[in-house]
Every structure is written in C-alpha cells, then in structure tokens.
Amino acid sequence: xxxxxxxxxxxxxxxxxxxxxxxxxxxxxxxxxxxxxxxxxxxxxxxxxxxxxxxxxxxxxxxxxxxxxxxxxxxxxxxxxxxxxxxxxxxxxxxxxxxxxxxxxxxxx
Length: 109
Description:
Elements: E1 12-15, H1 17-33, H2 37-56, E2 75-79, E3 82-88, E4 92-100
Parallel strand pairs: 1-4
Antiparallel strand pairs: 2-3, 3-4
Helix pairs in contact: 1-2
C-alpha cells in the first residue's frame, strides 16, 4: 500500500489596516465603554484562535456573497458575534475586516 504525503502550504498572514483598526475598535469598545476587560480579552483570544484556524484551513469557511462584482474571493469566519473577512492568495492570507455581525456590511468589505 502506498501513501501519498500531504503537502501543507504555509501562507503569510497579513493584517490589512482596516482589519487591525476594526479589531482595536471592538476590543476598546468592549473593554472601556462596556467596562468589561475580561470580555475584551476573550474576544481578542477568540480572534487569534480564528486566525490560526484560517491559517490552517483557509478554504474551510464560507464565501462572502454580494451583488457587487469583486476581483477577489472573500471568505468569512464567525468570531463571538463578529465576522472576520479574509482573502486567500497563493502566498498569503489577507485579513480584510473584522466587523460586528449586525453591522451593515454593504460597501465596507
């Protein structure tokens, strides 16, 4: 019996400025405005866990559907009431946005 080795492609994770700003805004809002540093830390940890899952299995998550034409496929993964939007390229994964699940997304992604 012959086994074919599995090749795992390692892609660089790139945080786009909007994704970084979205994450900071969410953590700051929860930690300061809602006065819940533990919840802010839990969201940050859940975000980091999601990034690890995306890095390991980038095509496992749902495609973002929109009526607008897009040049690149955008995927999304839920994270504690928020949604992380990302794009997979051959050499990298770009984290595009991190938005609250109830926030209007039209023209934001």
